[in-house]
Amino acid sequence: MVTKEAVEKTDQNGRQKSERETGRPMWVTQVMALDETGGEMINVTTAGERPTVNVGSQVALFKLEALPWATNGRNGVAFRAADIKPAGAPASK
What we know:
By secondary structure, the protein is an all-beta fold.
């Protein structure tokens, strides 16, 4: 379920980031991931057109990846998807 609509993924100077390989603009959408053990809010990055999903809507994440990272003594997991669509909608090509 979407908990915050897509916003520009920005660098430290407030400029929208773009995908290195393609130059496509990057977006961050906050969703709630839920399974039988509970739920967690995660930020999912996509590239291309701004995802058109609304707060409260159920969504499908296509080609979701969990990418572990570590920088300057901090670490975490970043989430990236090829696409975010309303549940039941076909994935983009």
